[in-house]
Amino acid sequence: MHRALSRCQSAGITSALLRNVRVARIAGLQRVAAAPSTAFIPSASRFLHIQQSLRQTAEATRSHEPSVDYHGPISRFEELGERGMAHPAIVQALTKQMGLENMTDVQAATVGKALSGIDMAAQARTGTGKTLAFLVPILHRIIEENPALAARSSHSPLASMDDSRALVISPTRELAEQIAAEARRLTANTNVIVQVAVGGSNKRAALQEMRRRGCHILVATPGRLTDLLSDEYSGVKLSKLNTLVLDEADRLLDDGFWPEIMRIERFLPQRKERPRQTLLFSATMPREVLQLSRQLLQPKHEFIQTVNEDEAPTHERVPQKLVRVDGYQNLMPALYELLLQGNEAAKNGGRPLKAIVFFNTTAEVELGFSIFRNLRPKDGRSPLAPARLFEIHSKLSQFQRTAASEGFRKVESGIMFSSDVSARGMDFPNVTHVIQVRCPRSTDTYIHRVGRTGRAGREGESWVITPKTDTAIRGTLKGLPVKADNSLGTATLDMKQPAELPKLQAMILNEIGEASRFVGMTQKSSVYTVLMNISLDNSRDMEAGVQEIVDLSKYGWGLRYPPALSRFVLGKLPRGIDVSTVSGPATPRESDDRSSFQDRRGGSRGGFGGRDGGSRGGFQDRNSGSRGGFRDRDGGSRGGFQDRGSGSRGGFRDRDGGSRGGFQDRGSRDFGSAYGSRSNDASGGFSRGGDAGERGSFPPRNNDRGAYPPRSDRRSDGGQGRGRDGSSGGSRRYESGGLF
C-alpha cells in the first residue's frame, strides 16, 4: 500500500486525491478489522482490490477537478511545457538553445494536433516553420517511448541501425540536409541520433556512420531510401517505425516519386503490427496529393488549412521587374550593374545584399559564377564585398552542395548562383533579391523561384533579365504582376557598335570583359552549345536566333571564332547559313593571327570594332580615333580596354604598344595569336602567361587551361588573374571616378 501511494505521489497525483485515498484506506482497514477472520483476503487479491479502488477514486476526483485543455490553441513554445504537451527537454531546446518564443501560424495550428498522435495532412507554404511542426511531435514520441534519450549521457545504451523511430521523406537533397540540420539543433542535448540518406553522397560512408552511431530519426530522399531498403545487405530496417512524414508532398509527386513512395510504404511495418502516425505537408493540394493522403493516412485523419485564401501569395506581394537586354552579351553586365546597385543601397542604410541568381541550365550557372569570381579586386577586396559568392547545381558533389547552401544560409551578405535545385523548399533567411537570368521554362518554376524572397514577413524583390527576343516571356509571365524596368544602363547598350559611355557603364563592361577572359574555353563552349540548341528549337526566326548566340561569343566573350559545335547541332541549322560563321575550328588555326575584339582588316582598330574599317575601336570616343574602346565621356587618355601606356591603338593591347591588340600580356614577351600561331609573332589573342613562344588557345589535351592561367596561378595573387610570370593579363581597368 505504501508503495502504491508513493507511485501516486511520483506520478503527480494531487493532494486532494491523496486525502481521498487515505480516507478510503482507513475505511477499508476498518472494514477489514470488523470482518470475520474467515473473510481474510490474500495479499495478491488485496493488492488488486486496492488498485481498483485507487483507479475509481482517481476517476471520481478528476471528475470534480477542472479539466485541462491539452490541445487547445497555443501561440508560445513555453505553453507546450506548461500544459504538459511536450517533454521538458524539448521545450528547453526550443526556448533556451534555439531562442524561440512565439510560434508561427503553421506551428500553432499543427503542433498540438500532431502531438495528439492523429494522422494529419496540412497545407502550408514553404518558409512558414513547418519543419519544427513535425520535428517536435517526432522527438516527443521518441523520448516518451524511451525516456533515457531525453538527456545527453555517455551511459545511455547505444542505438542500432534498426532503432529508427521516425522517417522523413524529402524531394531534394538540399531540403533533406536542411531538415536534418534543424533536427540536430533540436536534439543537440539529447541522445537522439539523426541520420541522412540522400543521393549523390557516399552510400558506404553513410552506412558505416549508421552502423557506428545507430539511428532514431532518418531523413531521406526517395531514390536513396529505396536503394537502402531494397538492399538486403545494407542492414537498414524500419521495423520499429512509429512516425512517417512526407514533406513537400506536391513536389514529391511533381518529380515523379509516386512509384518510389509506394514501394517504400511496402517496406514499412503494417499498422496492425506497429501503430504509426503519418504526417503530410504540402504547399498545394492538387488531386494527386489528396489521393496520396487517402492512401497513406488513416481514414479519420485531420486536414489543416494554414494558407489564408484572402492572403496574397508571395509572388503577388513581392515587387517584380523585367529587364529586356539588347542581346545575350548584355546579360552579365546588366546582372553586375544590378548587384552593384544592391550593394550601394546596403551601404546607404538598406538591408545587406543577399541575392539568389537563378539560371536555367547548369552550364550557365558555372559560367556565371566563374565570371563573377574572376572580377578584379579593388583595394584587395572584391567589387561586390562584403557579399560572398556561392554556387550550387547538380554537377557538384553532395558535400559541396551542402557546404554552399549552409554557407549562404549563415552569411549576412552573399550571392548564390543556382540552378533550380534551390528553387523549392529551401529556406534561406533574409534574401533581398531573386534574379532570374533568362526567362524560366514555366510559370510554376518562376513562382517557386520568386518564393525564395519575401519570406517570414520580410521584404524582397524579384528581377528577370532576359534578351528582348526571348519568346518565353509571353507564356511564362502572362497574368503575373511583372513590370518593365529600364533603370539598368548596360541592358540596352548595343555592344556591336561604337559608343560613348558613362563612367559606370564603361567600368562594368571593362571588368566583366576582363573577368570573362579568365574563364576556361570548356565552360564557354558548353553554354554556347546549350544556347544554340535552345535557339534552334524555339526561335521563330532561326537565322536571327543563331546570329544572337554567335554575337555572344564574339562581343560577350571576346572570341575571334565561335566554339565548335557537334554534328548533331549543326544538323539543325537551316539552309543558307554558313557553318564556318557558326561553328569555330575544332583544332587551332595557324592562319589566325588576329586578336579578339578586333577588326578583321587590321590590328590598328580596337575592341568590338566593325568589320569594314574605321579608325575607332568599339565603344570608343566618337571624337577621336586614336584611343581605345569603352572610354568615359571625359576623354581621359586611358579608355576602357586600353593599355596604361602611351600607345595610340585601343583594345586590350600590351603596355609596350604592340601593333596588335586583343587580350595580350602586359609584358614584352611574344605570345601566339588566338588559337595558336606557330610563327611566334607579336600578335595578340588569348595568350598564356607562360614562356615566350607558347601557343595560345586550345592547348594539348593534357592541359585544359592552356590559353588561360591555371586556377591555382590565377588565385595566387588574390584573384586578380595574373599570369605565371606575375604579370597581369590585361590593362582594362577603368581608373577615373567612383561607382555611383
From TrEMBL:
Q: Which SUPFAM superfamilies match?
A: P-loop containing nucleoside triphosphate hydrolases
Please verify whether the record's keywords include Disulfide bond.
Answer: no
Q: What Enzyme Commission number(s) apply to this enzyme?
A: 3.6.4.13
Q: Which Pfam families match?
A: DEAD, Helicase_C
Stretches the record annotates as Disordered? 577-740
Name the protein family.
Answer: Belongs to the DEAD box helicase family.
For this entry, the protein name equals ATP-dependent RNA helicase
